[in-house]
Design goal:
By secondary structure, the chain is of the alpha/beta class. The protein is built from 15 helices and nine strands. It has helices at about 25-35, 45-55, 60-70, 80-90, 95-110, 115-125, 125-130, 160-170, 190, 195-200, 245-265, 280-295, 300-315, 320-335, 345-350, and strands at about 10-15, 40-45, 135-145, 150-155, 185, 205-210, 230, 275, 345. The strands form two sheets. Strands 1, 2, 3, 4, 5, 6 and 7 form a seven-stranded mixed β-sheet that branches. A two-stranded parallel sheet has the order 8-9. The relative contact order is 0.15.
């Protein structure tokens, strides 16, 4: 594969909020890091702020350990088995009396107790490394007391303030909110779920945003001339934002990794990751062979092109013959339940679906 992304530049990163979907960002970071992409600033909102702190520490192994061994009880004061059954819809396996009692308490107290998350922040994050490292960290949260969004830089905060503001940024609406320094805060997504503004306002020109499509308000900003934002974004549902079970977190990590690889290497496909080796002429020849094989009769050139046009419309492809071939390969691979989380050359995927 040939790298298509410019690794000579130094980038800033914007990490969107999205709760339990945050493992996706760590997978993307792994791909970027392994391929030599360098950063000097990161801005995060909600879970993006917590991931941003790990990125500022430049400790990807810690980030991977946290997310690949994630559990509900590492974030909220809950029973893992009960929460897993709720998320998977296994209501018959629930202790309904116990669940009802717990939910009643949660509602009475204004949300899930996130003391475990508070302790996780305290026990795992190195505040000195975050403040004094080579990567600047900007945290977006929202002050309910002052009725405004805040954009804070880690180096301006004490250890305690830094930990408090990271927690404040991650105060998801379902979580119990407590006063911090005499003020009430809520999730950064309330006013700035995709934190581009802290980076743009400070003059960063080359920005990578890693999307989660979480709940919140995308703050409208105007990009100055010469500023470019490149997105790494999922094209499938990353699941419930409160599903902190390890299994979906591990899957989202892999999705983030492969979606970043798609960007880095210009891979084709929507669900699959396809490294192009075929020319358009070669793709055209393969499509013609497919159409002729599907037809009971010999086709004239006009009939062949008519079938190719129909096939192109059915596949939803708006590109050249190679794009049409990709759409066909993906549809065939999906029907055969071929593993999506792997990089294939076009030839290798054609062999997998039985066309080579």
């Amino acid at each position: 594969m040939q790298l298509k992304f410019d690794t000579s530049k130094i980038y800033a990163v914007a990490l969107e909020g999205g709760g339990a979907r945050g493992a996706y960002q760590i997978g993307a970071w792994r791909a970027l890091k392994d391929n030599g992409v360098k950063f000097n600033a990161v801005a995060g909102s909600s879970v993006g702020a917590l991931n941003g702190a790990l990125l500022a520490m430049d400790d990807i192994k810690l980030a991977e350990e946290l997310w690949q061994n994630m559990s509900f009880s590492r974030v909220m004061d809950v029973d893992d088995a009960q929460m897993r059954n709720i998320m998977s819809g296994k209501l018959l396996d629930l202790d309904l009396k116990g669940v009802h009692s717990k939910l009643k308490k949660v509602l009475k107290e204004g949300g899930f107790d996130v003391s475990p998350l508070k302790n996780l922040i305290k026990d795992t994050l190195d505040c000195e490394k975050i403040r004094n490292g080579q990567t600047r960290l900007f945290i977006c949260t929202h002050s309910l007391t002052d009725r405004k969004g805040l954009e804070l830089e880690a180096k301006d905060l004490s250890d305690g303030e830094l930990r408090d503001m990271l927690l404040a940024s991650a105060y998801f609406p379902a979580f119990k909110h407590e006063q911090i320094g005499g003020k009430m805060y809520t999730d950064g997504g309330v006013s700035n779920v995709l934190p581009l503004s802290p980076l743009v306002s400070r003059g960063y020109k080359d920005i990578i945003s890693i999307r989660l499509y979480g709940l919140g308000v995308e703050k409208k900003i105007r990009l100055p001339k010469g500023t470019k934002v490149t997105e790494i974004a999922p094209n499938r549902d990353l699941g419930n934002m409160l599903n902190f079970d390890a299994e979906p977190c591990r899957k989202n990590y892999k999705l983030g990794y492969y979606d970043a690889m798609r960007l880095l290497y210009g891979l084709y496909g929507k669900k699959y990751y396809i490294d192009r080796t075929l020319t358009e002429e070669e793709a055209y020849a393969i499509l013609c062979a497919v159409v002729r094989k599907k037809s009971d009769n010999d086709l004239s050139l006009r009939q062949l092109h008519s079938e190719l046009l129909r096939f192109s419309k059915e596949s939803g492809s708006k590109g050249d013959y190679f794009d049409v071939l990709v759409a066909f390969m993906e549809k065939s691979a999906e029907s055969l339940k071929i593993n999506e989380l792997e990089i294939y050359t076009d030839i290798a995927l054609l062999e997998k679906i039985g066309l080579r």
